[in-house]
Every structure is written in C-alpha cells, then in structure tokens.
Amino acid sequence: MAPSALTPTEEYHLSYKDLQSIDSNLGTTAYHGAGKAKELIGDALKSRVEAIDQDTCGVGEEDAFFVGDLGEVYRQHLRWKKNLGRVKPHYAVKCNPDPQVLRLLSELGTGFDCASKTEIEQVLKMGIDPSRIIYAQPCKTKSYVRYAAQAGVKQMTFDNADELYKTKQLFPDAELFLRILTDDSASLCRLSQKFGASLDTTAELLELAKTLELNVVGVAFHVGSGASDPKAFVKAVQDARFVFDQAADLGFNMHTLDVGGGFTGDQSFEPMAAVLSASLDAYFPPQVRIIGEPGRYYVATAFTIACHVIARRTVADATLGTTSYMLYLNDGVYGNFSSIIFDHQHPVPRVLKCGDDVLYDTGRSGYDTPSMIEYSIWGPTCDGIDVISSSCAFPETVNCGDWLYFEDMGAYTKCSATRFNGFSDTHDVVYVCSEPGASALLGL
Ligand SMILES: *Cc1c(COP(=O)(O)O)cnc(C)c1O
C-alpha cells in the first residue's frame, strides 16, 4: 500500500458522505437515538444477566461484561463535525481499541492516532490507508520506527533532538510534527511533564531538522487528558502559531496543526469547541489543515459494564446500631476499573438486578441516595487497594448473586486491565446500535 500524499485541503475518501443530511437532522434523530439507547442497553443487560444461573453456570460465565452502543460513538462524531468542523479527528486508539468502534470510525472517515507497532498494525489490518494514521508518540522504539517506515505511516511526532537523529537514520521521508509543551494544569491527566518541547527549544530543534534535511510539516500539542479549561487550548494555539512562524523563517512550509486530544464529552464540549474554533480561525488561515486526536470524547459514554456480586460481608456497628455491607464484585481496579487508578475516574454504582427484579435505569445512583443502606464496593483480588467505592447507598438490600452496573465505562478501562491474581483481562462486549446511520455503515 503506497501512502497517498495528503494535501492540506484534501478530505478522506470515505468522509462524511451523508453529512449534510445528518447535520440537518442532528437534534431530532440524535435525541431520538439517545432515548432509544437506554432501551437497547437495558434490554441487552437484562437478557444477558437473566440467562446466567450462578448455581449451574460454567467457569467465568458470570464474568463482568460490557454493553457497547455504537450509536453513541456515531452521535459523538456528528457532534464533533457540527462543533469542530475544521478539525479532522484522528481517534486515539489507546483509549479503547475496540474493533467495532475502530470499524465504525473507519467508515465515518476519521483518521487514527497510534502509539505503538501493535496499534498501527491493528488499524492497517482493517484496510485503512497509512496516510490516515499519525504515529503520535514523540519517543519511539527504533524497531517500531522501522516498521512504520516499511508500512508507509509517514506522519509522526517528535519533541527532542535524539528523535530527529533516529528519524534521519531510519525514516528520512517521515512527515514530522513538532510536539510542543502546553499548560496542562487544568487537566485530569497531565501529559506535559513527560512530553513536549518548550518554546525556548523549538528554534534549535527546527534548525537541527533543517540541517538533517528532515521534513517538518506541522506542530502538535496535547493540553492534557480530560482538559477542563478552554484557555489552555487558546494558549496552545497561540504557541503553535509562534512555532509555525519560526519554522517559516527557517524555510519550512508547515501545513498541518494537530490540536491533540483531551476533549471531554460532557456539556463543556460545545463551549470549549467554540473557543477552540474561534482561535483556530484567528491564528491559522483556511489552507492550514487542522487535525485532532480525541480519545475519551468518542467512547467514554458508549460503554456500560455489568458486574456480578460474588460475595458480601455484613458489618454491624454495635455502638451506632447500624448495619452496612461490603460487596465484592468480579471486576475491580486491576481489571476494567483500572480507570480509577490510572485515569482518576469515579465510576458510579447502580443496581442492575436485585433478586428477580431488573432495575436498570429506574433507581438513583449509589451516590444520590443518602440515609439508605450503606455499602462499600470491592474488586475480586487479594489487594486492599482494590476498592471501587468506599461508600455508597442503595435503597435495596443487595445480595450475593445480584448485579450492579456502571455507565460511562468506555475510556481507559478495558485497555489497561491486567490479569493480576489470575482474573481475566478480556471481557465480552454485547453490541447494540441506537443510530440507524451507524447500523447502515456497519451493515448491522
Ligand atoms: C492519550 C492521547 C490522546 C487522547 O487523549 P484523550 O484525552 O483521550 O482525548 C491523544 N493524543 C496523544 C498524543 C495521547 O497521548
């Protein structure tokens, strides 16, 4: 597969076929889909848990499982197109390399941000053209660079001199993006302690790239994962402009700005996108191509997980005269709740099945029901750190064999699960699709 040269104004071939009609329907179809989503997810959860009899089932049949709504990924894409139309998304595969999510995004015409040989390979195997991939890891393994060169994945980032020498040696035709440091103090997961060239080093790096006759085509930044402050984006865009001008002085013709990831899918997205769009238009003329690397934005809300209550301990406090319960689930921080440790998430427990009653989307969350029965929720490993919630409350008495569920479990969850203590790091995903547009693209 020969990489096709991607000029600043070119669209990907599959892009946004029916975008006009989609955009005009957004708000009607989309909300219809969002309502439909609950119904589909609820049905999928219900039929799976009702089919499991813990007294007779085979080993692992009662394991935690996900329900993934591909329609939600589709809606997020439309929302992106509507609010950040100038920015071509390159989905950050590390966030959740779910094959159906990748397939849908591929059909929607997005690009992909990969950080390792395995991620690049997974995307290429789907038949994606290498020009749709950016190898956005500024500090790369030599053998991986050789692999990228051989596979024709030209776009890659760098932020230090050694990486430039490495590129000169292994992949002199690479299309390089200079990753700059940003102020990420307002983000959930800070990245700038680790990556990014500070603005007092960019001139030196560009000069070295010039001496080595390397092809620097743009600037990249990442304001930190789960960014909460739109001002961070504005500052980063201004800094990128500064580096574009520096590069022009040295005779480079930069044509692409990569605004990275960090977008959240909550209601702060629209105002954030408005601020970012305005600053892009203020600092970068239309012929400059803009790409982004959203990860969590696309998938966080698309996955729900159901976990089985495998054990329970009753804690009676004689002095206070209260009774609370410790619930032990078959998934925890060494598994899909790794997001609690690595991503500072706070998954919200809800009761899915209590005795014979399936309660999906009926009760309040474990954090909105004060003065009811108190619980703490634990994972299955032997480590005391394996706690999902140190205190929550449900009106129901939850027993062994019941099920809990947690929404918004799509980002940085299963991708960082381990096999510690011999528990499984792979869990079934039951797919549903609440948007007909997505079903059509996937042939479902
Ligand atoms: C992790 C990462 C992303 C995705 O970040 P999100 O916060 O999930 O959007 C994008 N780009 C790079 C270089 C990353 O390391």
UniProtKB/TrEMBL annotation:
Q: Which family does it belong to?
A: Belongs to the Orn/Lys/Arg decarboxylase class-II family.
Q: Name one GO molecular function term.
A: ornithine decarboxylase activity
Q: Which InterPro entries match?
A: Ala_racemase/Decarboxylase_C (IPR009006), De-COase2_CS (IPR022657), De-COase2_N (IPR022644), De-COase2_pyr-phos_BS (IPR022653), Orn/DAP/Arg_de-COase (IPR000183), Orn_de-COase (IPR002433), PLP-binding_barrel (IPR029066)
Organism for this UniProt entry: Melanomma pulvis-pyrius CBS 109.77
Q: What does this protein do?
A: Catalyzes the first and rate-limiting step of polyamine biosynthesis that converts ornithine into putrescine, which is the precursor for the polyamines, spermidine and spermine. Polyamines are essential for cell proliferation and are implicated in cellular processes, ranging from DNA replication to apoptosis.
Q: Where is it chiefly localized? A: cytoplasm
The entry's active site is C382 (proton donor)
Q: In which pathway does it act?
A: Amine and polyamine biosynthesis; putrescine biosynthesis via L-ornithine pathway; putrescine from L-ornithine: step 1/1
Q: How does it assemble?
A: Homodimer. Only the dimer is catalytically active, as the active sites are constructed of residues from both monomers.
Pinpoint the Orn/DAP/Arg decarboxylase 2 N-terminal domain residues. 70-300
| Keywords (A to Z) from UniProt | Cytoplasm, Decarboxylase, Lyase, Polyamine biosynthesis, Pyridoxal phosphate
Write down the Gene3D superfamilies for this protein, in alphabetical order. Answer: Alanine racemase (3.20.20.10), Lyase, Ornithine Decarboxylase, Chain A, domain 1 (2.40.37.10)
Catalysed reaction equations from the record: L-ornithine + H(+) = putrescine + CO2
For this record, the Gene Ontology CC terms, alphabetical, are: cytoplasm
Q: What PANTHER family is this protein classified in?
A: ARGININE/DIAMINOPIMELATE/ORNITHINE DECARBOXYLASE, ORNITHINE DECARBOXYLASE 1-RELATED
Any idea what this protein is called? Ornithine decarboxylase
Q: Which cofactor does it need?
A: pyridoxal 5'-phosphate
Under the heading CDD domains, the entry gives: PLPDE_III_ODC
Kindly state a single biological-process term from the GO annotations of this entry. putrescine biosynthetic process from arginine, via ornithine
| Domain of life of the organism encoding this protein | Eukaryota
- Give all N6-(pyridoxal phosphate)lysine modified positions: K94
Q: Where in the cell is it found?
A: Cytoplasm
Among its keywords, does the record have Lyase? yes
**Protein EC:** 4.1.1.17
